[in-house]
Design brief:
- There is one protein chain.
- With 101 residues, this protein is mostly helical.
- Helices cover 63% and strands 0% of the residues.
- The chain is extended.
- The relative contact order is 0.06.
Amino acid sequence: MMERLKKILMAPVRLVGAILKFILVPEGARVKAAYTLLVIFIVAILAAGFNFPDYWDRSADRINAAAHTKIPHFYRSDFKLGLALQGGTHLVYVADLSTVA
């Protein structure tokens, strides 16, 4: 019973280990796929940081306080709303139905 429980609990750990091994120690024909996957993960992490900089900043502040390091805050940009979102447009669609039978 205990051995089966151990197997069930270790399954996610083995899966993460297999994924990390696939990415970090590529072999043979897997090299291109592994590096592509690594690039996708890096881009996803950067996109998440750009979309949700508060999470990065809070984590950086905690790590800086605990380890006395200087991890910078994530880049912030102001949102620039387009004309439609600023309320500057008004479209009126008119259909000429006189020629429709």
